[in-house]
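Narrative of accomplishments. A recurring question from our advisory board has been how the design workflow behaves on a single, concrete structure rather than in aggregate. To address it, we present the structure tokens for one chain from the evaluation set, followed by the sequence designed for it. No filtering or post-editing was applied between the two.
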């Protein structure tokens, strides 16, 4: 007998029974009903979000900024009225609460009373974050709550960008003013640097002159020492002269022989006294001039100290102003994360901090300069005291010299009288004794004045040395001041140029509010939700269609007598195969040409759909053939496990551990991936790989069904049970 005889006879019997034709036709449309209604129902739910009611409650009371009213909450509500993303319902607080409790609203957005005041606090000393209260009604519908929550986050992001744009525009406008101020400050710093350079040059000249003064003072001290030594010798000689005069009175007889020599010596003493007097007067005048010069130097030092004190005060104010600018920029950075990421803003912040550092160094240099000026003033005061002592000593020396001159003149006259009138020698000797006593006193005063002159010269040399040391420190301070003012000028100029580069144009505002742009690549983007869920629903539809077909058509028995073995297997298998092909063709035609499902390749979509339908049909045939009713129960369990583990809705990584473990063993896992390839991605190589894996399942269960019929040689005749 022909191996297809059983199949041919069953077809003839099928054609003679209209009810069987209707039943088979209905079963053939089962996957179409599953897939069609499920996919169509989830085709594009996001296109109807404007019908989703969401309550909006605006409690914002507004705020005032610089005398201008600000109502950010009302502006946000107006933006929502223009936004058609959801069915916004602008209600009061009670209506929103009642609507959530009665499930009339899927979510509620509440704008608090202090929303505008929180926004306005950004420029205050106590900034606060503005908040919008969102409440989803997930009890009513979880998916709707998730959708409205994501949309609210997008609206919050848009509102934040608008506020950031307004703040950025205000900040950039302030930067233009700041740039002008920094430019003027840079020009002032350049002028200050020029003044510091001139000051340093003047200090160098003063220091050099002070060095010369110290050298001259040392020489004066040395000369005063020599003069003091001579005065000691003179005083000793005068004392000896006084003693000799006393002895002369006792030995007048002996003096007559040396009369001529004594007169000659007295004349030489008188002749030398004008020279001594002129030298002492020149010394006294030099001391007076030195004292006057030291007083003028002291007045100049006091004026220099006053000028440096005023300059230090101005530098302190400049340092405070620049430091305040740097702190303000740093505070702006801390309060705005987007500014912290901006390279230009970071460059400006670094420049302002450098300017603050330069200003502090300027103030420090001027402080050191002021200390040096004060040391210089003290040294000049000591030097003035020494000069005054020197002048006093010169006056005393001059008085002593005058007395010495008077005594010498008297001595000369007395000697001449002695020589002329030897008979009057005794009175002349008395006068000589008196003159010698005066000469002795004058020499003592001369010695004392020269000693004071030597001490004043030492103090003058010490004061000049300290004054030179102070001038050196002053020069160092002036050098540091010049370097600091130049660095300050450079930093201020850089800060001015950097701040001037920030323009409050649309491009800059765009970069401030949107520092990072996201460029979407739509190569793997699915436009409609139905395209993404179709692989999952198609797999469910074909598995359910195969399972239902086993309840309508018996996979074991036949109405043909003596149907058994290979012939019965061929008849049953051909019937199941033809049903799977019919289901596949109907589903593909409906989805592609009626629902408008766009696939990457229509022929390959037909081919792959027929592979999936055939494999699922062979699996169901094998289970029911071997186990009958328990087999259908196991197929139902298999379908449940596949719904969870096939990653048709959630990604595999989000599934429970047991679902991940059985995922590779579930045929629906491969059917879903293959449908994704042919519908969305166009990865045909992966589609064929999934088809090959499914074919392995189909071949295994096809062989299992064959084994069953080969083991069961004798068939049983039984009319199929048709539904009433």
């Amino acid at each position: 007998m022909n191996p297809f005889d059983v199949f041919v006879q069953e077809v003839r019997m099928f054609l003679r029974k209209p009810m069987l034709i209707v039943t088979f036709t209905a079963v053939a449309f089962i996957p179409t009903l599953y897939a069609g209604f499920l996919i169509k129902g989830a085709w594009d739910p996001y296109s109807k979000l404007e019908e989703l009611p969401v309550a909006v409650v605006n409690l914002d009371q507004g705020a005032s900024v610089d005398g201008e009213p600000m109502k950010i909450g009302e502006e946000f509500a107006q933006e929502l009225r223009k936004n058609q993303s959801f069915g916004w319902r602008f209600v009061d607080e009670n209506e929103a609460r009642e609507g959530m409790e009665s499930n009339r609203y899927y979510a509620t957005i509440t704008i608090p009373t202090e929303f505008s005041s929180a926004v306005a606090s950004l420029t205050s000393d106590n900034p606060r974050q503005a908040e919008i209260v969102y409440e989803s009604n997930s009890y009513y519908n979880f998916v709707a709550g998730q959708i409205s929550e994501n949309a609210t986050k997008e609206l919050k992001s848009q509102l934040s960008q608008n506020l950031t744009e307004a703040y950025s525009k205000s900040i950039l406008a302030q930067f233009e003013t700041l740039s002008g101020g920094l430019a003027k400050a840079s020009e002032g710093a350049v002028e200050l640097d020029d003044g510091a350079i001139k000051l340093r040059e003047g200090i160098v000249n003063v220091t050099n002159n002070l060095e010369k003064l110290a050298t001259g003072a040392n020489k004066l001290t040395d000369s005063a020492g020599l003069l003091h030594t001579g005065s000691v010798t003179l005083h000793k000689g005068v004392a000896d002269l006084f003693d000799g005069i006393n002895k002369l009175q006792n030995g007048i007889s002996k003096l007559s022989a040396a009369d001529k020599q004594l007169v000659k010596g007295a004349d030489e003493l008188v002749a030398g006294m004008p020279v001594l007097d002129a030298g002492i007067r020149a010394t006294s005048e030099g001391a007076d001039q030195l004292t006057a010069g030291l007083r003028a130097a002291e007045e100049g030092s006091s004026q220099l100290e006053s000028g440096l004190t005023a300059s230090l005060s101005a530098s302190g104010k400049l340092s405070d102003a620049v430091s305040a600018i740097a702190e303000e920029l740093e505070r702006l950075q801390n309060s705005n994360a987007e500014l912290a990421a901006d390279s230009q803003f970071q460059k400006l912040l670094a420049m302002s901090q450098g300017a603050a550092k330069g200003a502090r160094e300027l103030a420090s240099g001027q402080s050191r300069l002021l200390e040096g000026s004060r040391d210089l003033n003290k040294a000049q005061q000591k030097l003035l005291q020494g000069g005054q002592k020197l002048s006093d000593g010169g006056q005393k020396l001059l008085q002593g010299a005058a007395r010495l001159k008077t005594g010498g003149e008297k001595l000369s006259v007395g000697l001449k009288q002695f020589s002329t009138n030897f008979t009057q020698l005794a009175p002349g000797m008395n006068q000589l004794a008196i003159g010698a006593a005066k000469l002795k006193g004058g020499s003592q005063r001369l010695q004392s004045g020269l000693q004071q002159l030597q001490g004043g010269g030492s103090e003058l040399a010490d004061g000049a040395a300290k004054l030179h040391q102070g001038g050196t420190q002053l020069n160092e301070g002036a050098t540091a001041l010049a370097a600091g003012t130049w660095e300050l000028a450079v930093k201020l100029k850089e800060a001015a140029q950097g701040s001037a580069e920030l323009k409050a144009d649309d491009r800059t505002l765009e970069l401030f509010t949107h520092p990072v742009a996201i460029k979407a690549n739509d190569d793997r983007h699915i436009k409609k939700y139905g395209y993404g869920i179709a692989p999952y629903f198609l797999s469910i539809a074909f598995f359910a269609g195969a399972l239902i077909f086993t309840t309508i058509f018996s996979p074991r028995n036949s109405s043909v007598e003596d149907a058994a073995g290979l012939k019965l297997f061929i008849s049953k298998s051909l019937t199941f195969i033809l049903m799977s092909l019919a289901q596949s063709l109907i589903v593909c035609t409906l989805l592609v040409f009626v629902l408008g499902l766009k696939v990457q390749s229509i022929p390959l979509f037909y081919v792959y759909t027929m592979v999936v339908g055939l494999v699922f049909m062979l699996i169901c045939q094998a289970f029911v053939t071997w186990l009958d009713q328990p087999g259908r129960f196991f197929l139902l369990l298999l379908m449940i496990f596949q719904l969870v583990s096939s990653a048709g809705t959630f990604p595999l990584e989000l599934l429970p551990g047991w679902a991940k473990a059985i995922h590779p063993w579930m045929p629906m896992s491969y059917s879903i991936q293959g449908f994704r390839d042919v519908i969305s991605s166009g990865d045909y190589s992966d589609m064929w790989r999934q088809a090959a894996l499914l074919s392995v399942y189909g071949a295994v269960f096809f062989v299992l069904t064959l084994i069953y019929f080969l083991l069961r040689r004798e068939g049983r005749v039984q009319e199929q049970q048709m539904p009433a």
